[in-house]
Each structure stands twice: as C-alpha cells, then as structure tokens.
C-alpha cells in the first residue's frame, strides 16, 4: 500500500547531492501525503469492517517475524543485484568479505527504474508502519478497556508529530550519510523495516495491555519536556539547514561563526552555541517524554528501552562525529570546541 501510494501520489522532485562520478540522482518526495493517505484508507477500511486493524496489535510478534524475514530476503536481493555491470558501489561496502558487505550493503543507490529503494525504505514503510502500529494499539486499548487513556493519547500524538516532522522535512535526508555514503544492505533494511516500527511502538503496545492514568501536574510536566525537546531538535536542525543554504539570509545572518581552513563555517551561536550536539539533546528529551506516561523506570523498565538505547546510540554517534570533525577541521575544531565547550548539556557534558 505504501509503495503504491508513493508511486501514484504526486510529490516534489529534488536532486540529491553530487555523487563521486559527478552525477546527481533525482528523488520523488511525498512522504507526508503517503502517511496521511495510508492512515485515512486503513481507518476507513477498519470502520467499514473491511479489515480489523486491531489484528495487527494482537499479532505484533508474528508480524515482527515476517518483517525480519522480509529484511533478509530484500538484503539478499540487494546483495545479488550489486554485482550487475555499472552498479555504483559504496566505498565501505565493497571489502570482499561476503558477510560484512551483505550486512553493510554493497550498492550505494539501488533503484528499480526511478524508484529509489534505499530512500523509500529509510522513511516510508518503517515510520508509517510505526504510526499504523500505534493506531492499532490505541484501537486495541479502546476495544479491551472501553476508552483510550490520556497517556496513550500523549504518546500517540508525540510520536505522530515526530514522524510527521521527519516526513515534512524529507528533503533533509538526501544529504545524510545513509543516502550519500552508506550502501543498502541488511543493516539498513532490518533497521528500517523491523527495528523502527516494532521497537519504537513499545510504549503504545504496553499501554494497550496496561492502561495508566496521569495527574494534571504530570501531564503538564511531560508536555513541557516534549515542547522543549522538540524546540531544541527542530530549531537546531532548521537553523543548521538555513545556514547551509544561505549564511547571509534573514534566518541566518544574526548567527556567529568561525571560518575554517577548508573554506567552510562553523556556527558558534544560537542553538549551536548551547552545545555541539544540541539536536541530539532535544531528541533524547523527546524520547524520554514518550516513556514517562507509562510510569517510572523502576516500575516499567521495558518502556524505557527507546531512550536508553537511543542514549547509547547517540553517545557512540557523538564520539564518532567528534573524531570525524577533528580529522576534518584540525586546529579549527579545537578553536570551535573552545567556544562551544559542551557536547550535550551545558555545565554537565
């Protein structure tokens, strides 16, 4: 359904970054429209009795198994087709080690005609599937308990905003390492098709079996955490994107920066003057806001899997980013770190 809607619905066409052979690929971007259409069609079919969306919540484990199996099948196809003449290979996925290359991905941008398999899988089935699963869990809670509680409503809306934000700003993915550098292999296939929808929906899954209640004070506090986290996450990313497009534009000209020997600029004010990875800080705050409606971590540690996992992931990514930037910018990175001293949280880390 999602793939069909992606092909059939209109969308903006954008060019990606320049590849090492000097060419640029074009991408059809209509993720938000596909999500809205998918939800509308599935809910209409559910309420007309054509399908039972709650079935997905009741059968989440078998669906997870099917998604993992499909990830293997897709990865085998991707690995086999990477040996076709003319396929552009990812520099890190062409080592000659079969298992490693299968896992990381050999081909950089596998396509079927104009349909880009990697960009599609990066955003569409996983993120939209996540929202569909959350919808199924909310319907299950209503079926089993007669209502959808406030904690579920909060989690559902928080995560819907996160997905809608990613799809609204879909063009931003075209400059990420996943698209420009990494091959498409099992790592991305499994992450996109199985890991994201089934692990990121654990809060709604938990609440569909064990509904909670929240005090007014707790609700206000969780909402505040989400709002602040989202402001850091979206504000920092938008500020960076605006500066890259036009450093002298109305959205960027007030920002302070340092010039580097590479001829680029590093922002040292605004959101990026707070911490070197302030967007990660916002991301973590939002992840915590998803889990808090489910109760304390001591009472229900399982529902805190996402923020704990994401903390480890971001700490590793932050260390990798620091190492890469130090190699890339040399002495200029030391100057930058002297001006923006903290990595995540001022006066803490």
Summarize this, please?
The protein is mainly α and 349 residues long.
Outline the structure in words.
Helix 2 (31-47) runs parallel beside helix 6 and helix 13 crosses helix 14 (331-339). A hairpin with a 2-residue loop joins strand 3 (111-112) and strand 4 (115-116). The protein has helices at residues 2-8, 31-47, 54-58, 60-81, 98-104, 117-145, 150-168, 177-180, 186-199, 202-209, 216-245, 278-291, 305-329, 331-339; strands spanning 12-15, 26-29, 111-112, 115-116, 257-259, 265-267. The protein starts with a helix and ends in a 10-residue tail after the last helix. The strands form three sheets. It has a two-stranded antiparallel sheet. A two-stranded antiparallel ribbon has the order 3-4. It is mainly alpha-helical and 349 residues long. It contains 14 helices and six strands.
Fill in the keyword field for this structure.
two-stranded antiparallel sheet, 6 strands, 5% strand, mainly alpha, 349 residues
């Amino acid at each position: 359904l999602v793939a069909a809607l992606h092909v059939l619905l209109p969308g903006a066409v954008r060019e990606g970054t320049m590849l090492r052979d000097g060419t640029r690929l074009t991408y059809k971007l209509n993720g938000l429209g596909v999500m809205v259409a998918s939800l509308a069609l599935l809910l209409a079919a559910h309420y007309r009795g054509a399908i039972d969306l709650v079935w997905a919540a009741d059968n989440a484990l078998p669906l997870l198994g099917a998604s993992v199996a499909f990830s293997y099948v897709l990865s085998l196809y991707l690995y086999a087709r990477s040996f076709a003449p003319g396929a552009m290979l990812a520099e890190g996925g062409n080592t000659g080690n079969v298992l490693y290359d299968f896992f990381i991905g050999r081909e950089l941008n596998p396509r079927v005609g104009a349909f880009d398999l990697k960009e599609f899988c990066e955003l569409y089935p996983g993120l939209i599937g996540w929202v569909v699963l959350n919808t199924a869990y909310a319907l299950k809670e209503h079926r089993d308990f007669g209502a959808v509680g406030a904690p579920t409503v909060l989690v559902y809306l928080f995560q819907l905003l996160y997905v809608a934000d990613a799809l609204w700003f879909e063009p931003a993915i075209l400059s990420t390492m996943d698209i420009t550098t990494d091959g498409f292999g099992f790592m991305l296939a499994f992450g996109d098709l199985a890991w994201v929808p089934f692990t990121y929906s654990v809060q709604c899954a938990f609440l569909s079996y064990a509904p909670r209640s929240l005090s007014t004070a707790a609700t206000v506090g969780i909402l505040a955490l989400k709002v602040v986290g989202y402001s850091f996450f979206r504000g920092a990313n938008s500020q960076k994107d605006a500066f890259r497009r036009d450093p002298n534009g109305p959205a960027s000209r007030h920002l302070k920066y340092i010039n580097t020997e590479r001829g680029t600029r590093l922002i040292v004010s605004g959101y990026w003057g707070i911490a070197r990875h302030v967007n990660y800080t916002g991301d973590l705050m939002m992840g915590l806001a998803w889990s808090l409606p489910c109760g304390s971590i001591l009472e229900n540690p399982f529902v805190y899997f996402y923020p704990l996992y994401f903390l480890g992931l971001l700490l590793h990514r932050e260390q990798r980013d620091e190492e890469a930037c130090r190699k890339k910018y040399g002495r200029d990175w030391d100057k930058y770190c002297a001006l923006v001293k903290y990595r995540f949280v001022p006066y803490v880390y």
